[in-house]
């Protein structure tokens, strides 16, 4: 019986030893200007590490889909270079493209074909010889084995997305692009898909995903890149990004509402709620001294008492919104 876990796919998907130090994708000076004059990509430099989950975030029209399309060889660049595991994706198109699996956002499955046939056909498109054992491993790992003889039109939206992933893995790629992998699916199914992606990463596949669900990147990514206006404005380890850019807030619930922040507290970054019942203190969570102790002392000296307090740290969504707002 064929192995059923995604971890056991690693022997089929990654037959060669991986050199962890060299990026599996290296993008240099990438430009794309469409015929109508729209400048979609502007001097993009980006390296993707082997075996990581890299989340690419950006508002609509930022260049996410164009960047993926250029790397996958679906759109020709105007300038610059893309290397996929050392292969130039223009000069060495076949070698570069054979290393990539692409799961598009749109559900474009052949409605009246069976799951088995459509996944097997995708393998043949890359010139790979038939390998029923590999197709079986993929279908079992994605919980599609019992659906192998079902026509695609009979499947749920979530199962159709799993079929798209199976098709993308059919030719044993080392890199998987997921363009909005959980768009339009419910929360429960979204979390199931997250687990599938984690297992693929654990099997050795490099995952690059675009998403407009900020919590998806926050939950899954090892590193995060932000693209806006065709430029990469930031690439950072997720944890480091949260530490460096994530501010904290201390909210003090006052016993007696204030009309204004006293002049004696002007040295603090304080905001007063509209009804005067709360003082909100913003500070840098990455710095050693938060100033909270001094603030509480000065509040006491000013005769301001509070009945409760709580802290909140910026989410990745807060950080993303600030980045896009500050760097047009």
TrEMBL record:
Keywords: ATP-binding, Nucleotide-binding, Transport. InterPro entries: AAA+_ATPase (IPR003593), ABC_transporter-like_ATP-bd (IPR003439), ABC_transporter-like_CS (IPR017871), ABC_transporter_ATP-binding (IPR050763), P-loop_NTPase (IPR027417). It comes from the Bacteria. This is Multidrug ABC transporter ATP-binding protein. Coiled coil: none annotated. Residues 25-254 form the ABC transporter domain. Pfam families: ABC_tran. CDD domains: ABC_DR_subfamily_A. GO terms for molecular function: ATP binding; ATP hydrolysis activity.
